[in-house]
Amino acid sequence: MNNRIKKFLSYYKPYLRLFYTVMACALVGSAIALLYPLLTRYITKNILTNDLSNALNQIYIVCGIMLVLVVLQNLCQFVVDYHGHKMGAMMESDMRRELFEHYQKLSFNFYDTQKIGQLMSRVTNDLFLLSELYHHGPEDYMKYFIKFVGSFVILFFINAKLTLAIFCFLPFMAVFALYFNKKLNIALRRNKDRIADINAQVEDNLSGIRVVQSFGNENFEVEKFNYENNRFLESRKNGYKSEAYFYTRMDTFIQLITITVIVFGSINIVHASLDLADMITFLLYIAYLIEPIQKLTHVTTQFQDGITGFDRFMEMLEIEPSIKDSSNAMELKNVQGDVKFKNVGFSYNGNNQSVLNNISLDINSGDYIALVGPSGIGKTTLCSLIPRFYDVNEGEILIDGVNVKDISLHSLRRNIGIVQQDVYLFAGTVLENIRYGKPEATNEEIIEAAKNANAHDFIIALPNGYETDIGQRGVKLSGGQKQRLSIARVFLKNPPVLIFDEATSALDNESEKIVKDSLEALAKNRTTIVIAHRLSTIRNAERIIVLTDDGISEEGTHEELLSLDRTYAQLYNMQFVI
Ligand code: ADP
Ligand code: MG
């Protein structure tokens, strides 16, 4: 069996008992539905005989049976509606969790090429359609099959000729339904594309609403939105038109079949080869025969939507994280913090142009080194290789003499702290955001970390102190405050190796000074690599490394490099010019 089909079915596994119960109820419910016309026939036949007092008795008995059946059918319907949907929802939730867990594992180079909005819709929309299929698919097939075959067999035994006459219509109806199915599907697909466009635009607009307002471009944005909104409206109108055509023509078919039964039935009654009770039975069963064909479009659309959703789900799930633990990955313990680059070469995904070439670098435990060089030369890239955000293409990187590829990702990253220019804070309180550095930390530890990061004073001045909500991405804080929270987070994590990537670049002079103090406190007794474009901030580094197109071109203290009078001296002098 195809692997995907196996995988598709595997999600039923935890709920097999529920599934069988729901299917059994669907079966019993449909079988009961088939009985009503038969009971009606029985009553009518009794009335048509002339023994009316007996007929009355029979009517009461049949009425009793019908009431029992109604209750039974109701129970079955409840199980199908509630437990069936519940099963679908639980399966959907399992898949959603699996996909989310998978997202957590995928590597930086995957996210470099993806649109977040689309990844989100895979977790929500696509899976919803799939859960509908998981539940309604088998149940609908079963229901329609029972009703169609059951009513055909019953009618055939009552009057074969009339049954065959009705069946002449069915192939036409089926062809017609399938033709419209195609049209409806195209319309549905277009609707989905259009609504996805609207989603993307709204997301983009709301994320950038501050830019929109600062440029005063609200009207421009509304016009852009109107365009997409109208396109969606047009596409929906077209969809409804096809739908209306479909349903009205389907009704015409049903009316034609009804007329056929009435005309041919009456003729047969006149010729005494059919009685009134049989004709009524036929009229009642027509709906059962036609329902499956009427629902053909619905069922196929549901199937296609579900399968497309499943394919999109699997496409994502089948993407292997490009960076993961090797089979014999070890845990890093008691890290000293020696970092060594050995002939490292690197280029980004599918890009032949190498960013780093033949880089060798020895950083000893406790060193405080600075990395400088022109913008875009690869400083950030070099640092992101240490925690294995990307893997080197050539050479190797060692921590305490162990190749980073042989260390478990979790323990490797646990031991490296990064403070960047762009601070990402999660929506939530100050306390929650600092705790991110060590989920099991006590409140005392968190306050201690905040004090170390020079953040405590401003935090207690906030309206709710540590419990203050900082807004999405920390919009309610200043740049310097956000940076100090991110430093507190790293204090709490307490890693032996640190990377500061332009951590103070976006700050004004005053904030910069406070943040610099926090960073220096953090760097004490740890191996630290600092990237900074303000050369004044790295002047007192023990060792300065200059990265240029030719790799590491200079290395030494501030004074040594100035006296060399090469790239560093140029960069430094430029700053003075500025
Ligand atoms: P620096 O930090 O020295 O300013 P970077 O390390 O950020 O430079 O970038 C080095 C080069 O790699 C640049 O040419 C940049 O365009 C490219 N680059 C950076 N990040 C990515 C990425 N995620 N995917 C592809 N190319 C990238
Ligand atoms: Mg950079």
TrEMBL record:
Q: Which UniProt keywords apply?
A: ATP-binding, Membrane, Nucleotide-binding, Transmembrane, Transmembrane helix
Does the record carry Repeat as a key word? Answer: no
**What CDD domains does the entry give?**
ABC_6TM_YwjA_like, ABCC_MsbA
**Where mainly found?**
membrane
One GO CC term of this entry? plasma membrane
- Give me the segments passing through the membrane: 20-39, 59-80, 164-181, 253-274
Q: What is this protein called?
A: ABC transporter ATP-binding protein
Q: Which organism is it from?
A: Lederbergia citrisecunda
